[in-house]
Write a structure and sequence with these properties.
The structure holds 3 protein chains of 3 kinds. Chain A is mainly alpha-helical. Chain A has one domain. Helices cover 78% and strands 0% of the residues of chain A. In chain A, α3 packs parallel to α8 and α5 runs antiparallel to α7. Classes of the chains: A mainly alpha, B mainly alpha, C alpha/beta.
């Protein structure tokens, strides 16, 4: 496989910088600028962390599916790498989403977890599904086949994410606070702005981490292929 | 392609008839699960959503077993290579395996549903049968498609029996939701209520989406 | 010049970090027999599996029957017979059921099935489940399976293993009948006697590619060192 370390590493520093600035800005806005929400109080501010993170995580899973599809289409292993990193990163962030969600739930409703909640349950199911991704990969030894099967899984699971949310929502009561709209018809401007900045920050963060891990993995793969070449040349010398 | 699918299906049915490995095991598991529910719930007659839930859990567990065993004959006898070497379209294999699983599920349900009626259900089963058949059939098709997909995915790994449930159960959750909500309405104490249109619709949509996905992806699963 | 049935150039196949095959190049023309020699683990089985499209090459050029693998693997299906380590038969079905199933998939008549069952001499055991048969009988049934489509190319991985001299005698003419063949085995001298050319594999690389009569004892011994 061609070495993509340069390609993946390009622009990483600038991206990291942009992500940091945006996130710092968002946090500043959350703590110093946006008003406290009327019925939930200060703890509601976790919304600016939890919801963008959740959206980015789900986006990461779906992106993993798209990269998986490209892997199947082109057969180029670089897509598999991109898919793997996206899913693996989203899985870790998903843990953070579940934890922040539980904190918020405890503070607002008094329970750490609420089964009635369609969004929470859907997210948990998606998390459980993607938790099999790595066991699946490691249970297949041949790298080509591993890449292909992982891609098939990524595509199926990526398609499953929207279906699952639709299904669970249809089936249950709507008790999750309508975070993107209140009874008065919409979030007040300052909250919307902060939310959007936070969304941007989280997206940039995801992309930075994604690129970073890609670069590091590309470098490691390059190293393996060099090692393999050395091993091969040593056996040729021995045979001669 | 259809001809080859039929040939493969005949082979799978012949193998099952000869070995009797999947269907009896599935039926036994379903029976055991129903008995466990009977004692765990401490009730002999439940209705509505509770009954519905028990039935669907039972069916799902039985199908996990069937899905796990779908490609076992190929794997054990090196028969996979023979299939791969023959000019067989991969979608024919998908069709054959999904249909085989569908048939197995139907046979198991023919045993499990009456047992359920006797062991757990508090309302008469008779009037519920017509609507129940429709819901079960739709759900079985969905399970068969997902089962063929997951089975092909898991068969090449070393941890097949572990992977099948953890892959298939989350994926089948929408089927569980739609199926159990629909049959919850069927198992009402006052007689079966009309099933809300959205549940069969969800099952049908799910079947179409996953059917298309399986159709598109199967080629990648069985080659090297 | 007779068309080359097989052409390999720089073919590679990796297994994780290890090489399974590296830099393999040779050609086999129509009607020729190529003997593949080497110790266990040298890559013989991998090579055969690559030639029938079961494994795709990770690099290099592989052309079989004029079709480039892996892209045109579809085109050679049913035209390459593989007699490998596993019998590729369902153990719960009878020999006849197995062969008829394969025949239907490959659009071969059932007369040919009966004909082959007779030729390999297992007509009296053909209606018993494969799991009840001796290894020699299973090997013969597997040979029948490989020959079912009358393939122009035969890949034989230790074909006479498990067979008694009677069985070998029966199988030899069937497996020789003027086809292009690639054959491996553990008796290099016996293999070379029936081959036109030979390739020696050592640690995934080819030690030599030469006409069969030019292969010396030292070359063979070097493979097993």
């Amino acid at each position: 496989m061609t070495d993509k370390t340069q390609v993946h590493g390009r622009g990483l520093r600038r991206l990291a910088f942009a992500a940091t600035i945006t996130l710092i800005g968002a946090f500043a806005m959350v703590f110093f600028w946006t008003p406290n929400e009327a019925d939930q109080g200060f703890i509601q501010k976790i919304f600016y962390l939890h919801v963008p993170l959740a959206i980015v995580t789900l986006g990461g899973f779906v992106a993993g599916g798209i990269f998986g599809f490209m892997q199947l289409r082109t057969g180029k292993r670089v897509w598999d790498l991109r898919s793997y990193v996206a899913i693996h990163l989203s899985l870790m962030l998903a843990v953070a989403v579940l934890i922040t969600g539980a904190i918020w739930a405890k503070a607002s409703w008094g329970h750490w977890w609420v089964w009635d909640e369609p969004v929470l349950v859907s997210f948990l199911v998606v998390f459980l599904l993607y938790a099999c991704y790595q066991p699946l990969r490691f249970a297949i030894e041949d790298p080509e086949r591993q890449a292909r099967y992982a891609a098939v899984f990524a595509v199926v699971a990526g398609a499953f994410v929207p279906i699952n949310f639709a299904a669970v929502r249809l089936a249950q009561a709507y008790t999750h606070p309508r975070t993107l709209g209140t009874t008065t018809g919409g979030m007040p401007g300052s909250m919307m702005l902060t939310f959007l900045i936070s969304m941007l920050g989280m997206t940039l963060l995801f992309m930075t981490l994604w690129k970073f891990e890609l670069t590091s993995k590309s470098a490691r793969m390059r190293l393996s292929s060099i090692r393999r070449r050395i091993a091969r040349e040593t056996t040729t010398e021995q045979a001669a | 392609m259809i001809g080859q699918a039929i040939t493969l299906l005949r082979k799978d049915l012949l193998l099952e008839f000869r070995d009797r490995e999947s269907v009896p095991a599935m039926a036994l598991l379903a029976a055991a699960t129903l008995v466990v529910f009977h004692f765990a719930l401490g009730q002999r007659s439940i209705s509505g959503e509770l009954a519905s839930g028990a039935l669907w859990v039972t069916l799902l567990f039985a199908s996990m077993l069937g899905i796990s065993r779908l490609f076992v004959a190929e794997q054990e006898d090196g028969g996979f290579d023979a299939v791969l070497l023959a000019p067989v379209e991969r979608t024919a294999i998908l069709l054959a395996k999904a249909t085989a699983l569908l048939i197995f599920l139907i046979i198991v349900e023919l045993i499990a549903v009456p047992m359920f009626g006797v062991l757990l259900l508090g309302v008469p089963l008779g009037p519920a049968i017509p609507s129940l058949i429709g819901v079960l059939l739709l759900a079985d098709i969905c399970i068969a498609i997902v089962g063929a997909l997951v089975s092909a995915l898991a068969i090449q790994t070393r941890i097949r029996e572990l992977l099948v449930p953890i892959l298939a159960l989350p994926l089948l959750l929408p089927v569980l939701i739609a199926g159990s909500r629909a049959s919850g309405q069927i198992f009402q104490p006052g007689g079966p209520a009309a099933v809300a249109g959205r549940w069969p619709l969800m099952l049908a949509l799910y079947g179409v989406v996953f059917g298309l996905l399986a159709f598109a992806l199967y080629d990648y699963l069985l080659d090297d | 010049m007779a068309a080359n049935i097989i052409e390999l150039e720089g073919a590679e196949r990796r297994y994780g970090e290890r090489d399974a095959l590296y830099g393999i190049s040779f050609a086999v023309s129509e009607g020729e027999t190529l003997a593949v020699l080497g110790a266990n683990g040298a890559g013989k089985t991998t090579l055969l599996r690559m030639l029938c499209g079961l494994l795709r090459p990770h690099a290099g050029r592989v052309e079989v029957l004029g079709h480039k693998l892996p892209r045109e693997a579809w085109a050679i299906r049913g035209k390459v017979g593989l007699l490998g380590h596993t019998p590729m038969l369902y153990s719960s079905l009878t020999v006849r059921e197995n062969l008829q199933h394969q025949a239907r998939l490959n659009r071969v008549t059932s007369e040919r099935v009966d004909q082959l069952i007779d030729s390999v001499g297992i007509a009296d055991r053909a209606d018993e489940p494969v799991r009840n048969l001796s290894r020699g009988t299973v090997q013969r049934a597997s040979a029948a399976r490989a020959l079912l489509c009358d393939p122009p190319l035969l890949l034989l991985d230790e074909p006479y293993a498990n067979l008694d001299p009677g069985g070998s005698a029966l199988l030899e003419p069937l497996l020789n009948a003027g086809r292009t063949r690639v054959i491996t085995g553990h008796d290099p001298r016996a293999l070379l006697a029936t081959a036109d050319s030979a390739i020696g594999l050592r640690s995934a690389q080819s030690s030599f590619v030469a006409p069969a009569d030019e292969v010396s004892e030292e070359m063979i011994e070097a493979l097993y060192r």
